[in-house]
Amino acid sequence: MKAFYWLFMAVALWGATAHAKLNVVATTPDLGAIAREIGGDRIDLTVLARPTEDPHFVDAKPSFIVKLNRADALLEGGAELESGWLRPLIEGARNPRLAQGEPGRIVCSEGIHLLEIPAELDRSKGDVHALGNPHFMTDPQNGKIVAQHVAEAFCRLDKKSCDYYRANLARLTLQLDQKMIEWQRLMEPHQGKRVVTYHNFWLYFSERFGLKMDLYLEPKPGIPPSPSHLAEVMRTMTSEKVRVIAVQPYLNRRIAETVASHTGATVVDLQGFPNGSKGGGSYIEWMDSLVKSLAAALKK
Amino acid sequence: MKLLKYFGCSAILMSAAMLQAQDAAEVEQLKKKLQQLQEQFEKAQNEHQKQMKALMQQIDGLQQKQSSLTADQQQLKDQMSQPMADAAKASSLEKGRWRPSDPISLLQRDSSYLNLSLSGLFAAGGSTANDLSSLQLGGHDPSQRGFTVQNVEAVFEGAVDPYFRGQANTIFFIDRDGETVVELEEAYLESLSLPWNLQLKAGQYYTEFGRHNPTHPHAWAFVDIPLVNARVLGPDCLRNPGARLSWRMPTPFYSELFLGVQNSHGETAFSFRSGEGHGHEGESEGLPFAFRENENDRGVRNLDDLLLAPRYAVSFDLTDTQTLLLGASGAFGPNSSGESGNNDTQIYGADLTWKWRSSRHQGGFPFVTWQTEGMLRNYRAGSFDWDEEGDLGDADGNGFPDEGVLVDASTGLPAAFSRETLTDYGFYSQVLYGFRKGWVAGLRFDFVTGSRGDYEKLPLILADNAGGGASAGRDLLRRERWRFSPNLTWYPSEFSKVRLQYNYDDRRDIGVDHSVWLQLEFLLGSHAAHKF
Asked: A250, B360: Cβ pair inside 8 Å?
């Protein structure tokens, strides 16, 4: 009898899983982390960019074409985040499900209030993003919006599992709301403090948590640091008592350490994406590690 | 016994019913939980919208203070006033919709109908060679002491409709005589939605032969084109009007099959029906290629009078950071060599690209790429008689063959060549090392040669109209030569570059030459994405 019962269960389980999983490709690990939260075990997820990689300059490997060719859905950041590499891949993939405007093409920046949209396009100011700063996932509130966007998109693609996606969305939103209180509390004592970064990557994060991460080691977006610019940064750091330099794993740490040694500041590693060498795998764990390591460094 | 059986059956049924009841209770519980969660979520959302409303009110307040509104703020307000869920639903097509009141932004990717860009490529330098035009083979190579305007290229590109993408590259450059030359380098449309992983390309385009041929000058890693490309595919690369179908094959790794059909005539079909005086302005200053004129253009009667270009490419990821791409290409078509005969050309090519990019790269650096391409050409040269007019090459009637007529010294008569197949081959191999952000060191080795043709075995003399003349020697357009080119490139940003290159050239029968070139480039407008 017991054997029968197990057999029945096995068949039922098989029946449930035989329903094909949604094949999802995400361009960057942060979007991938959201897709994993919403899609759970109902999706097969592939993330193109590695967490340590500069998301603007991912190699357009032909193997990505194969992955995109089979995808039911593509999550992209949009706002020119992937403009240096994604388009030839999509064109090469020849996947009508990922055509512009199709439900499988999920542009995550849609619905996000993008900051720093330049009033005039002038590249003498460096490599500006015409559509605004694309690193919006560093704000957990934006993470929530993207999660909602992704859940809706998954629902459209896989109606049978819609309740499942909605439940996952509700759970993630709730967790984020609860965590948000904790994060705000941790950052409360550091309101208005200035933090040096390499690149304007943490704009949305700093806006959310009341920091000023607006002192950059690079003189203009995409332009490598020059000695005169670094000297000016160091002067500002000393006069304003800026104590923390935040660097990302793919950026040159040596420059940050040199500046830190001259100013007595500490260098903090902030993972640009979840699943980094340190830091957590999920979106919340990642955000948690960002907030905690910054709060710890600012306390010093 | 029977009773026991009934008892057993009813027990099973009861346990099944209990199980069901238990499940139902659990489902009910879960439903309740879900409802709770949904309520909580909606609450959070409402709060969010409240926040948004507050922000909007603030903005409105500010607006009233300010008499004039900038376009920016208008945009901001528009964005804020859109309920978030609606915004999330909005397709990207709607987002980029252009309104008559908007400025026409030609430079913005994905938000205009046409992407425009302009790049300028300039070189300055010099060489120990006095015959620079035959030292530098490429149509866009720096080929004079002093300054060269190599390539000023305007690119128009965009999605035509849901079915096609269009692109046109028009080129301007200033030739050695100071004349501005305009070329339609490419202009084609590409299908976006064919079934079965097919893609169609039609128009004027670069033949997908190997790695270098389809690359635009601004994306070259060196100042000049590889020797083998210039000799076998042509100084301006192989490109012509035609159509190409490609099929991405359903393999677990990347593999793609291309089949192109193009016109086989014109100067950009160099090894084919390239018209009068085969050979480019480059190497053709002396005797023509294979010492015979191109006077045998048989036109197009059948499909095989066109140029057929198949290619197969595969790629594998060796590790997370290393990628390998292998390709085999061919180009087959008629040529117009000599005076008669159905002559044709077959070109075979193989290419290898290996790339490593650090998993912690910054702006794409550091990286190493190794690219090698080899080519072999079988060229059926038609028969040709230098006594074209039947006057023994003596048009002025002074009893000697005229100046410039090729004479066979063993007979004293103008040379006559029969049909023969000429084989040329060569390769280049280049390594690029992006050692720090914006800096790339490159090294390229070039080699080309040709098998000795029957016509080169004759004692040929270039007549001087006085019964004598100089020995013609070997065909310099097919003679062995090699080149060694180290260079260093600095990209101050993605939109400009400065490159310094040294060429060590060794040409058999001519000798060694040294050249130094400095190259400058600027790029305006939308920057096309990098292909692998």
From this structure: yes
